[in-house]
Amino acid sequence: MDTKKVILTGDRPTGPLHLGHYVGSLQKRVELQHTYDTYILIADMQALTDNADNPDRVRSNILEVALDYLSAGLDPGISGIVIQSLVPELAELTMYYLNLVTVARLQRNPTVKAEMKQRDFGANVPAGFLIYPVSQAADITAFKADLVPVGEDQIPMIEQTREIVQSFNRMYGPVLVEPQALISKVRRLPGTDGQNKMSKSLGNTIFLSDPTDVVAGKVRNMYTDPRHVHAKDPGTVEGNPVFSYLEAFDPDTEEVKAMEEAYRRGGLGDVKVKSRLIEVLEAFLGPLRKRRTEFAKDPAGVMRILMEGTRKGRTAAAQTLTSVRAAMHLDY
Ligand code: TRP
Description:
Layout: E1 6-11, H1 19-32, E2 37-42, H2 44-48, H3 55-72, E3 79-83, H4 88-98, H5 103-108, H6 110-118, H7 127-130, H8 132-142, E4 147-150, H9 155-172, E5 180-183, H10 212-220, H11 241-249, H12 253-265, H13 270-296, H14 299-327
Parallel strand pairs: 1-2, 2-3, 4-5
This protein binds tryptophan.
């Protein structure tokens, strides 16, 4: 019997993935896929909860995100990449779980609260948006995930999933697996503007799919210490994204340390540090770009990979749904 633990995680296909996604989660997934049964969900239904008026945005990003996964090293031979909307069992599970959650509890979910504010929904929150944590609980439990590798902002989702699992198992019998969040320990990669978070809407990202000259341009325009006007001036490393990126991507940690000391002391110019970062990112992104080009040549082949992953995922979800229905005495 296969006793490997199961991992499930996913992304909303609303845009291409960037270096922050890589450092925060992709890298970890690529590593973990060898130890765990891994499912990666392209969460198009969840993406629609605030993109109902723009389904083409979601549609066009399915292939983009799949290419990001494959180029980052997710191996479709061992990891199942699943298109959420092609697993209708998830929607059915969501309906059953909704009865185990109160509206007040949904309104208290801090991540959803923050997102609602960000999106300025006011009183016009789409009901689907408010309940997406429940649909996420369906995602997680359908695959019987033990571990959910996510960023910190997703902790409330896992918390809410655990509550749903506990209610369900108490009410209907021990059917669902209680998942645990696997929070990546790496520090969050700041945006190229030095802002706390890389985000597409802030325009401060470097995408995994950016070509060489675009990456170089973005690095040259990167925020650094504004008081470090001349190379000879002492500079600040903390909060300086150029160094955060070097720390994340330069394999020569000794050299990075030496550069940081020189920068602090004064005598190391931004142009030099940025040139190094351009080289380092090129060395990292080069192989990704190569794999991407290969896969992108054959979009039908990528779709086949997604269909195969989805088929595998759907089999697992259907099994869970059968036990859920039986536990709820819906096995007519
Ligand atoms: N909410 C996640 C995000 O915004 C995406 C997601 C959907 C997810 N379903 C999931 C993550 C299940 C982990 C497990 O990035």
